[in-house]
Every structure is written in structure tokens, then in C-alpha cells.
Model the fold of this input.
Amino acid sequence: MTPFIAEIIGTMLLILLGNGVVANVVLTGTKGNNSGWIVITTAWAFAVFIGVVVAGPVSGAHLNPIVTLGLAIAGKFAWSQVASYVIAQLIGAMIGAFLVWLSHKDHFAATEDEGGKLACFSTGPAIRNYSSNLISEIIGTFVLIFVIFYLAGPDLSIAVAADAKIGLGSIGALPVAILVWVIGLSLGGTTGYAINPARDLGPRIVHSLLLKGSSDWSYAWVPIVGPIIGSTLAAFCYLMLS
Done:
């Protein structure tokens, strides 16, 4: 178990359970069909919990490129490790998405709604307005990263060491799960609260490889650019206030 492998496994579990609940709610014939937004946001929150529990002791369980980016900007994580973490997160997200498809294969075949199928992989806006959608992702991500800094407290400052394991795992899994839960309940209804480029891009690639129908690439930049901006703003805001 290395940090690279831990990020793959942790992100895989995050996507398997997170996108898995979307499949359970959206796809035709599942026992959880039409069970609603509360079910989705709750399972996503605890998917974060599961991923952090497994990866936290080894990698810090970032599970999200913008967590890695925010910590690096704030001087809490080595820039030299950013690329390897992001690659691992993208790989893990793709594996998780494939497993969602594999476990729900019959239900994907039974579902006619192509938009519903895509929702089991990647996010999409409730009302398509790119500027508003971008702002929603920026705000949601800002809340995620900014609060993470304060959940971590003064212990985050120990990350000057090159091998320091700082990330979601360093602050405990449950507080971050609660944070993701409230973001989903409060802010997630506009865009599906990607707040994680790997969570959206990796599964979207898998969708384009496995299923017919549009993968909505015209929207794909929003859950990448929005979280990057939100994370950067949160890190600089934290630095100014510190």
C-alpha cells in the first residue's frame, strides 16, 4: 500500500458508492428507484467516509484533485506530489465508474432515459446556464476546501515535512462526510455538486466508452474549472486570514 495506490482505492470506493446510489435511485427496476435526493446526498456523504477510512492512514485521503491543489497552494502539501495524486484519483474514479456500470448492467439496459444513465456517471445542471453553473461549483467547492482547513485546525501546519500525510484523512472521516452531506443538501441541487474534477471527468470518460448517447462534453469543463477556482480562492482566503 502506497499513497498512489491508496488514492486509487479510496477514490474508487468513493465513486463506486457515490455513483452507485445515483444508479440505484435513477435506473429502471432497481429497488431504490425514485427514492430521492435525500438518499443520494446521504450515500454520497458516507461514500466519502468509506473512502477516507481506507486511504486516510496512507495517503491522507485527498480523493479529490482540488483538495490536493488547495493544500498545495496553502503550503500544506508538496507540489512534487500533486501530479501523482491527481493521476491516482482519476484512475480510481474511472475504476469506480466501471464497477457501477458492471453491478447495474441489467438496469442500464432496461433504462431508456439517456440523461438518467449519464447521471449515474457524471454531473449535470438542473438549469443549463454556464455562468450560473460555474458559480455554483465555485461556491460549493469554496465551502468544502475552506471548511476543511478549519476542521483540520492547527495540526494542519505540520505539513512542512515532505512525507507528511495531510488531507481528508488527517481530520477524521466523519466531519468531512457531514460537510459533504450539507453541501449536497444545501447547494447541490443546481449542478449535482461535483466539487471534484476527478469525480466528474473520470466517470464521464467511462460513460463515453461504455454507453451510447451523449456524454455532454460541452458541459464537462464546468465541474473542472469551477472546483479549481473555488479551491484556489479558499486556499488564498485561508492564507490571508491566517
Residues 146 and 234 are 5 Å apart (CA to CA). Confidence is low (pLDDT under 50) at residues 153-162. The radius of gyration is 17 Å.
